[in-house]
Structures are given as C-alpha cells and as structure tokens.
Amino acid sequence: MDKIELNSLSYDEMKELMVSFGEKAFRGEQLFSYFNRNMGLTLDDIKLLPLQLRDRLKEVGRVNEVRLLKRFDSQLDNTKKYLFLLEDDNIIESVLMEHNHGLTVCISTQVGCSMGCSFCASTKEGRIRNLTPSEMLNQIYLIEKDIDNRISNIVLMGSGEPLDNYDNTLKFLDIIHHPKGHNISFRNITLSTCGIVPRIYDLAKENIPITLSISLHSPFDHIRMEMMPITKRYGIQELMEACRFYERTTRRRITFEYTLIEGVNDRVEDAEELARLLKGLNAHINLIPLNPIKEYDRNRPTTSRIESFKRQLNKRNIQVTIRKEKGSDISASCGQLRRDYLAKK
Ligand code: SAH
Fold it and tell me: Could you tell me the CATH number of the domain that includes residue 44?
C-alpha cells in the first residue's frame, strides 16, 4: 500500500489519523501546525510527539520533500524567481513579487499543463503530472524561509491549470487558510483559470471567498479558439454564464486576464465586444502585454496602442489595469524559466 503523504493532510484528516492510532486528537493538531505553521520538513524534528508515535507515523506515512534548486533575482525590481526540485526530479517554478500591500507568491499547480494555449510556454510539452497539496504549500514555505519573511498574497497563476487539478488545489486552499496553519485569508488568494466551466460552478459552491480570475484573451469564440483550445469545449457564452453564477453565489468581483497580442486581439472591435460581454458584471480587467516566447511568433502591441485599448474600455465604464511587468530581466512568462533551465541542462 502507498504511504500517506503526511504533509498533504488537512487539519481534519490529521486529527482522524491520530484518532485511528488510538491517540488524542490534539496530536493531529500538533502535527498539522508543525508542518503548516512551523514549516517543519522531517518527522525527526518534531520533538513534541513521543518517539513511539513518530515511528508509527513513519510506518504508514512519509513526508514529501521539495528542495530549492535555484533563485534568480531581478535587477530591475525586487522580483525573485525560484526553481524547485521535486522528489521525482521534476522541476517547477514560482515567483515572488513585492507590491505596496505586501509580498505575493505566484505558485504552480501542475508540472507542465495540458491546456495547450498557443502563447504559453508552460504547456508546450503537455502536462507531466499534478502537484500534490504539499508541493504547492512548500513553494510558499521554502520562499518564506529563504527571505525570512511572511508573504501576504498568493496567486495560483504559475504553470498548470488549477481547475484541472481540482481536489489537490482545494485541499491546498483549505490547508494554507487554516488558523492552525498559515492562516492566510481567502480574500488574499487568487485562482486563475482558462475556463473549465463545470469546475467554476463547483468552485462557486465551495463557499470560499477567493478571487476568481478568468483568462479570457478574446471576446470572440473564433479568435479565442485559436489561442485557447479549451474554447472548443466551453464557448465564451457558457463561460460568462458560469462567471455570473460565481459572482452571484460568492458576491466576489471577478478578474479577467487579457493578454494583448498585436494584430490578434487589440482592435477597437475587440474592446467594444469585450465591454459588451462584461456589462453588468462586477468585473475588473487586467491587461497583460504579451511576453513573447520563441514557440509563438507574435508580439505585444506598442505602449500607445495598449493605452488606447484601455481607454476604449474605460469609456465604456469597465475597470482596467495594465499589468506592470515584473522581473522581465529574469525570464519572462509563465513556464519559461523552467524550460530555459531544462534546455541548458
Ligand atoms: N492555467 C491558468 C493559470 C496559469 S496561466 C490560466 O490559464 O489562467 C496565468 C496567466 O498567464 C494566464 O492569464 C495566461 O493566459 C497568462 N500567460 C501565459 N503565457 C503568457 C505570455 N507568454 N504572455 C502573457 N501572458 C501569458
């Protein structure tokens, strides 16, 4: 039988495990806090638990270890990019960004990605595997240890499609939010998706007030299909209905990501249709100038064209932010760093 991944257990699961051993439930709380508050890494260090119990845990369980492989520091701002080594030698990346409201970590949820978006480096070799909850948690814990500081915001916007790894992502959210662990408010967490519609309904019903971010990138099905194959499965209308449901159910504002690509989605009619689509929705658009990757032969629009796209939306009462680029000197887009590193090896 496979051993239990102890550092992926939720608070309740940890307590149940202890009770199943004939121990008191508070032992579960101790172990949960050891991993998720004190960021403990091995069972040998947890002196709170009696030796006998530690041995028992080692018989049925194991601790999944993630190691910091390399850090890249931007010279332009305080952005840091991290490569982590997983137990099976896979490599994942995370980004630490400094904002006026604190420190944000952008984490990966899968090794690779199966969604196939044309402009995205993470998906070029498909999905290799899902990350477990502890592998998501440890991206945050190892970064905090590295900088000796606490982070305040988390975005699930690194490599992978979080809603394609639904159960592990939900468990990660439960653990990182738990008061006996890191106690991070759901309001400080953003989950970004390419639009797996049934999972958006599921997420809305979970009753967790995280921010949902939709990677839209075009208001037209025929254009979005070229960029994002998921559109063939779930069209834009269907996606928007799911967003309306999410907004109604959670009463949270939805964010839309819109990567601007010259000659693809930066025309006046794109802005017009986009504004029409979002009408009546409590929404905010983040415009992201394309980070060119070598597998996708397109460019970002000029700054003045980006500004004018923004004005078109503002004119129609849509809230828009142009995403400031961070750490552009240390390999730009999602999944690029890992690919560059693997290519050099
Ligand atoms: N799978 C999720 C989260 C990961 S991608 C999603 O699709 O939302 C995070 C964001 O980065 C998405 O909005 C994605 O479309 C965007 N992105 C990916 N590659 C990019 C690139 N080369 N330039 C600009 N944005 C990119």
Answer: 1.10.150.530
